[in-house]
Amino acid sequence: xxxxxxxxTSITRPDPAEVDRLRAFGVATVHEALGRVGLMRPxxxxxxxxxxxxxxxxxxxxxxxxxxxxxxAAEQVQPGDVVVAGCTTESEDGFFGELLASSLxxxxxxxxxxxxxxxxxxxxxxxxxxxxxxxxxxxxxxxATLGSVNVPVVCANALIHPGDVIVADHDGVVVVxxxxxxxxADAAQKREDNEAQKRKEFDxxxxxxxxxxxxxxxxxxxxxxxx
Length: 227
Known about the structure:
By secondary structure, this protein is an alpha/beta fold. It contains eight helices and eleven strands. Strands 1, 2, 3, 4, 5, 6, 7, 10 and 11 form a nine-stranded mixed sheet that branches. A two-stranded antiparallel ribbon has the order 8-9. β8 and β9 form a beta hairpin. α1 packs parallel to α6 (181-203).
């Protein structure tokens, strides 16, 4: 059941310093550090290759073909926020473009993730305003039907609460619950440190078969080498 016609004007955001720590890591690392949960479906793609973002979510629940709630969400944005928009049903219309990006940026937004369409992509790339969307679609929208702002939303099969941290890059989009940001940043740093050592050993010619101790279980599974 959706809550429609509601705007929550006060949300809890995580410590900005902890968000900054998380910003240092890519989506793949954060997803692993989180326990391999929180990843949006891979159809959500950056509208230009270098797009990336990290910040607390201001959420918007949209109606299909209607971007009214994105304008309402703009008023709730604080510097560093990411707007995350889900829809009451599937829609690939062009909900978002250059003008709305200008509005969000003036409020301090660092980007948008939307389970819907986006247009004006050349202009958005020139602005370097990162958008991760379901589709690129020139079809416009109306402003006629109420949704809600700062309510829990589902975006590309991921549940987002206001204030959860969104990390997005060319590998995808992951949602970090706001009360786990610090712990996930710690786990991500440990993973990065571990991978740095592995990278060094791979560069020196060590095989994954030996580094990961794979030979014995492979033999146990029946793998046979033939000349």
